């Protein structure tokens, strides 16, 4: 069974690449560059768009014609709901072919090899819209494209009056570059409700993502009911509510209430899986072990090698690791499961048994990242294990653990996936690797024949800051939209069949609510969607930016938050020959004007316009900057302390 799956993955990937090569040459014949046309602004950019004359106008009585296949029911219901809600029109569906159908969703009788399993054709003529695909997923993606061809008000959650509901006539042929197009949502650091997870799924499917990786366990919380292990959710799901810059909080007092958090019951999980499946999204569960396990240990201290664990509590954002020496960190508390304790494997067998039954997805992610060596190095049980098993290093101890976990996972009929650190002590050939520290680890893993999902922090960590640190909630690193857009998940020199795909990761240490989760995801989620879906050759930054701006208007109407950081100024600073500051301002978006002040008042377009590097006046304490497009302010007012620039420029 597993061999068959792997074989079909190989076949699929090779045919996707053959299609891609063909698609590109065909594209060049029909459209020289991505369509830079505000009327057609599709994200991710399709394989080919051929614009025709005229428009299709939605009638106020819409009929959707669709085949009888039960797998199409959800897609039709989705389209019916979206069209009906925003237009207020009457939308009916029919299974009988009718010449007067407004929109036809057709599953091909004969497979069109060019578009593959997930591809589609959309044809908009003045009379009718037709979406064709080989498989139901393709029709769903075609429907997403169709919705993006309609006016932005189609995103409204209530009927909008006075709109001419028209779509430009067009022929679109499209299919994804990669099979794994994921977003990771960390629901452990802060808990997000079932409704919020559905909201996240609703947003991701607009951009043809198909995998939601749920990070379900970490030091700050255990988020899934496991029958027979009640303390995981009675104790492990709760900590003390704190706000501010997470990571260095004052440790909670013993009597502070532990009532912040939550978990999903198994019924909740089933509901989420069904909701995602109806939208062609698979949910991959992650239980992060053996590190990041304080919530487990607070619940069941006997799973630790460290006797003091009986006093451990679920982390509430206080410091538990010292990263000053780099990775691996120095642990201040032992947040690891004990690899020398047989009870740990019994525990994980119970957990993964239930997880394997709940989640239909082929892979279970078991974490394996950032395991501190601090406590293992000095522990007698670990020393004994090393002697018994002939393990020479701590990474080999982790490797011993991972191999045992993989056996458990495989015994449940699932495949093992873990973060790239598991490569260090050696990992079995069948382990799939999620590469986060850089492209390098994924590249090495693919060369060694592992399946790889690329999610390197340098391109795909969407918890990082999007604009200057003076503007954004503080995180230790930055990742601008432009850099995200450079992401190419398939490195040169690697056999692409090993790169299953890629994903962006939304860690939520500093993300306390859903609005901020959305802010961090969009528009970088657009860029990643384009990296995993669109032909590499069609990527074009300035065209992408103009489409991104169209989609900002769509998200406004959908009431989904996004970061406008791309309009904010980029500061660079150096010292001139006389050792004074020389400040350069720029923007990611071309064609904006930058106005500034050093006198503490708020600049607008009647203030000095930036044209050349600035030397601050000797007494100035603050540089205030705002960007405009023509007469309209577009960026946020940015306050940059001169003291901060002095620091960045280094010694005088
Ligand atoms: C990770 O960011 N520690 C996977």
Q: What key phrases describe this protein's structure?
A:
eight-stranded parallel β-barrel; 20% strand; 31% helix; seven-stranded mixed β-sheet; alpha/beta; single chain; 27 strands; binds acetamide; 3 domains; disordered N terminus; 18 helices; Immunoglobulin-like; TIM Barrel; 652 residues; globular; Chitobiase, domain 2
Helix content: 25-40%
List segments where confidence is low: pLDDT < 50 over at least 5 consecutive residues: 1-36
| CATH H level, superfamily name of the largest domain | Glycosidases
Q: Would you give the CATH topology of the largest domain? A: TIM Barrel
Helix count from the secondary structure assignment: 18
Mean pLDDT: 93
- Structural class of the secondary elements? alpha/beta
Q: What's the β-strand tally?
A: 27
Major sheet: 8 strands, parallel, barrel
Shape: globular
What would a concise description of this structure say?
The chain contains 18 helices and 27 strands. By secondary structure, the chain is α/β, with parallel strands linked by helices.
